[in-house]
Every structure is written in C-alpha cells, then in structure tokens.
Amino acid sequence: MTEARGSAGPNGVTHARHAPGTPCWVSLMVHGLAATQEFYGALFGWEFRPGPQQLGPYVRALLDGREVAGIGRLPPDRHLPVAWTPYLASNDVDLTADAVRLCGGTVGVGPLDAAEAGRMAICSDPSGAVFGIWQTAAHLGTAITGVPGTPAWNELVTFESVTVAKFYESVFGYEEEAADSPDLDYVGLHLDGRPVAGIHGVGTALPRDRGPHWMTYFEVGDTDDAVERIVGLGGHVLRPARDSAHGRVATVADPEGARFSVIENPR
Predict the structure, then answer these.
(1) Are 103 and 114 spatial neighbours (Cβ–Cβ below 8 Å)?
(2) Which of 209, 243, 241 has the alpha carbon at shortest distance from 224?
C-alpha cells in the first residue's frame, strides 16, 4: 500500500451514503460458508446475520452491531474466484455497467436487485480484475471504518497502472495522482481531492496463479498478533509483517486461499 489513506478517530467513523466511485463494501464468495464465518469471526470478532440471497446463501458481518463486510457461498454455475471483492458506489448501476462495457470491461453478473438492499453488478476491468458496483437502497454499505476489524483500503494489484487507471477514471470519474518515485508504478485514485483507492503495477511480480486482482486491507490492533492468529486458524502468510509509511502490514490468505492484507494503523 503506497497511497496515503484517510485517517479515522479511535472510535471509528460511521458512514452515511457513499459518493459515487467510493469503495463502499467488500464481499467474499467461498465454498465453505460456515467454516469461513468461524475463521473471520475468530480473527476480527465479527458476528453474522443473513443478507440477500440472490446469488445463494449470504451473510453480513457485523462489528458492534454495524455492518462491515459480506460473505457468500459460491454458486456452482458461477466461475468466480475465491477472493475479497470491493464494491464501488454508483447512483445508477445500469448506466455504470454500460460504461464498463463501453470502456473495455466485462459485466459478469447483473445488474440485478439484491432484495430491498440495493442493486448490484459484478464486473471485471480490461486486465481481468473483478470488482462490484453497488447502488444503495436500504443497505448503505460498510457502516464503520477506522477501528480493528474494518476495511481500511482497497488497492488494485496489476501488471501496469497507466492503461487500467484510464478505465477506472473513465467509468467512475476519478482523478489520478501518480507516485513521485520514477521506480514505483503506482496511481492513486481520488474523488474531490480525497484518496479512495490505489492501483499498483507490479509487472512480472504479479502472482501467476492469481492474475490482476483487488486487494482489501483490514485494520488490526497488532499486525504481528493478527498474523499469528491467522496461521493458528488455518490461514497462510504470503508476505510477512513489515513496516510501511502507513503502518505495519502483512499479506495473508484465509484457509480457502482468499488473499487480503492486515494493517496496524499508527496512532
């Protein structure tokens, strides 16, 4: 994670409606729903309640009664990766899905209504990275950030940033800010001057078994402790804990192989 993130107070920030283009939700599709709930419940202290079932069994994860993420069971007829997927806010999912197609992306699921919660689509950008689009109705998205157990940042890991950044700029109206270093292929995506996501081009360092993908960072109170618990719960360390300008961070995978990062936000 290279781009600066917004800060939050020690008690977190409670969110209302998200501006179009803002990452507003993260969702994970897995094979073993019950086992995955046990893993993330033990790791982040999440509790769960049922959510919309349009794509099959689905639960929403709650922290102190506020929604932070979703986990669903992969439908047998859908060839989707076991991966954390960010949803980007839209005022009109159908129009945004049309823009995705016009700009060289693909719409794999939807647009469709998720009961009374809202309207959604699952898409991929021209490099193949999967993301979602969410149009709010009853469900506003992630209700709290800035405390352990909540999403802290979303970053696209891809071959190179320039081409795919133009896609996201065209679809969602982002402003781009390239990294200062000529040795770093990184573009920050901004809305109204505020960083909301990043694109990191890593070239041949991209995992061959994964391809371009969005990486979700979750805040933790202690990165080293979180990594130890992840391993104890059956997860894996992909990149050991290390210090960064934004806090101590590690890249890991859950027992089904879904990649994510944990970061300890320096106070």
Answers:
(1) no
(2) 241
The least confident of 12-26, 51-65, 241-255 is 12-26
Query: Degrees (nearest 5) of the Cα angle 200, 201, 206?
Result: 105
Task: Read off the pLDDT band of 138 (50, 70, 90).
Answer: confident
**Which pLDDT tens digit goes with each residue over 155-172?**
999 999 999 999 999 999
**Tokens at 77, concatenated:** 């007829």
Lookup: tokens for 203: 């070239």
Closest by alpha carbon to 68, among 141, 146, 148, 152?
141
CA–CA gap between residue 81 and residue 78 (Å, rounded): 9
Task: Report which residue type is found at 90.
Answer: S
Name the token pair of 45: 């202290």
